[in-house]
Specification:
- By secondary structure, this protein is α+β, with helices and mostly antiparallel strands.
- The chain is built from 7 helices and 26 strands.
- Strand 16 and strand 17 form a beta hairpin.
Length: about 500
């Protein structure tokens, strides 16, 4: 299971090109050449340059071209459709193409050494493996994909991940959570210096004895701003660990939360962990646990937890009304306990079932931070707040979205529920270096038996998974809890009386 190459394209041309990123694997290409020479039933098809491949992918999936114009290689009824596998320019097959976060990800798996020129797709393990890899690359890029361009720092992170996780074109680890950890053990290859084929990465000798831990915390929320309907949210996290020590050491570490925050609940430990019975607990205000474990050699999930935080990290109000001229108002308030230092903070405001947005007007002085843009599909307003909230921890946006033409039945429904005033704004953010629950693993508490010198690296990040603020003027889907059902029943009884 190997790959001949990986490509990332933008649906819109940037400096006259669709291609954003490309990486080839010469070792796999040499293997394909040798296999084809040994088997007369297959003819070796060398890959064209990256710009030609990008143009072929764009033509095949119909971006940057006139879709009303018939293209035999793409639109013929005789063509066998096997998505997500495509044939590019009638020669390059099987190209796996995957779209996510507004970008097109593509890879070309190596076809096994077989007598068939076009074996069934189910017999090519590289197709499913390639699709998993493309999904991992999309998750590494994340929501910033709309601003991804040549030279973006995320592309360096992608290159580090492919160098460490897919050496010589053969994937050995497709978990996107290992990208940053793997980057600590390797350095990127200088593209201007010829690298030996046997050496895909440059190992840094000083990173041998290390214990790397990362606390990843996510929150899902639905904010309604309606009387009688409480906001709902889930805050959950995991502690990832990667130990690079010789032998099979025993490690002791402490995981704790601040006394000002509620204790963690539903804590699930890895099977290699032995929980110390003498857990620290001060009047139930917080829980501190010393854990002892014998780690496996690979990256593993040390524990999972849920935090019943009583408040939201960002409170918000979203108001939207209008048909062809839609007025939008968003107000956000950052909680004082949250670190005001974001890697990114954006608000995506989709306006469905009205066609493409033709223009966005923002009143002068109404947006006190960040910038306004339009998504590539022209159906979402993107408010990029940036890396910090103002000193008062509030940010407000008042904008007007204008649409071309009239709403008609010919416009396909983008969302069956979000019609008219039924709408939401989605907040996307990421904070590095801290968590909302204050969960932390103290690097000073880490001890190893037998005693050996090591370097502890502890990181933390807090992200929004699905953070929705529903329009105050419209309806919103809610879960009918027992408490809410009782309140509805009481109101009906009061109305009857």
């Amino acid at each position: 299971m190997s790959l001949r190459g990986v490509w990332i394209l933008s649906p819109k041309e940037i400096d006259g090109k669709f291609l954003i990123y490309a990486k080839r694997f010469p070792v796999v290409e040499k293997k394909e050449y040798l296999w084809c020479n040994q088997d007369n039933s297959r003819k070796y098809q060398p890959l064209p340059d990256d710009s030609q491949i990008a143009a072929g992918i764009a033509c095949e999936i119909g971006i940057g071209t006139d879709l009303n114009k018939f293209n035999e290689s793409r639109d013929s009824c005789d063509k066998l459709c096997q998505k997500p596998v495509y044939e590019i320019d009638g020669k390059i097959w099987p190209m796996v193409i995957y779209e996510k976060h507004g970008l097109i990800f593509a890879c070309l798996p190596l076809v096994n050494n077989t007598s068939e020129s076009r074996p069934p797709i189910v017999s090519i393990p590289g197709v499913s493996m390639g699709l998993s890899l493309l999904d991992s690359l999309a998750n590494i890029v994340g929501p910033v994909a709309s601003s991804l361009a040549i030279g973006h720092p995320k592309l360096m992170e992608l290159n580090d991940f492919l160098t460490a996780g897919v050496p010589f074109g053969t994937p050995i680890d497709l978990n996107p959570s290992t990208a940053k950890l793997q980057a600590k053990f390797t350095t990127s290859i200088n593209p201007h210096k010829k690298q030996p084929a046997w050496k895909p990465t440059v190992i840094v000798p000083k990173t041998r004895n290390q214990i790397n831990t990362t606390i990843r915390e996510e929150i899902r929320a639905s904010i309604y701003n309606r009387p009688g309907i409480p906001d709902v949210w889930d805050l959950y996290g995991s502690v990832m660990c990667k130990v690079d020590l010789e032998g099979k050491p025993d490690i002791i570490a402490s995981i704790s939360v601040s006394p000002k925050h509620p204790p963690l609940v539903s804590v699930q430990m890895h099977s290699c962990v032995h929980v110390d019975e003498s857990d620290d607990s001060i009047k139930g205000c917080f829980i501190g646990r010393k854990i002892r474990f014998s780690p496996p050699t690979e990256l593993f999930n040390l524990c999972n937890y849920i935090s019943p935080m009583p408040s939201l990290p960002i409170k918000g109000i979203y108001e939207m009304k209008g048909d062809q001229v839609v007025k939008v108002c968003v107000n956000l308030k950052l909680d004082g306990s949250v670190t005001n230092a974001f890697e990114y903070c954006e608000v995506h405001i989709p306006i469905f079932n009205r066609g493409p947005i033709s223009k966005i007007e923002v009143s002068t002085g109404t947006t006190n931070v960040g910038s306004i843009g339009l998504a590539q599909d022209k159906k979402r307003i993107i408010w990029n707040i940036g890396t910090k909230f103002p000193r008062n921890l509030e940010a407000t946006l008042n904008a007007v979205a204008l649409f071309d033409g009239k709403i008609s039945d010919k416009i396909p429904h983008d969302d069956q529920f979000c019609i008219g005033k039924n709408a939401y704004a989605q907040v996307r953010f990421k904070i590095n270096g801290s968590t909302f629950s204050s969960c932390q693993l103290d690097p000073q508490s880490i001890s190893v038996s037998p005693n050996v010198y090591f370097k502890p690296n502890c990181a933390a990040e807090f992200t929004a998974s699905q953070y929705l603020i529903w329009n105050s003027f419209g309806d919103a889907p809610i879960a009918l809890t027992q408490q809410l059902q009782n309140e509805i029943s009481e109101k009906k009884l009061n109305q009857q009386n």
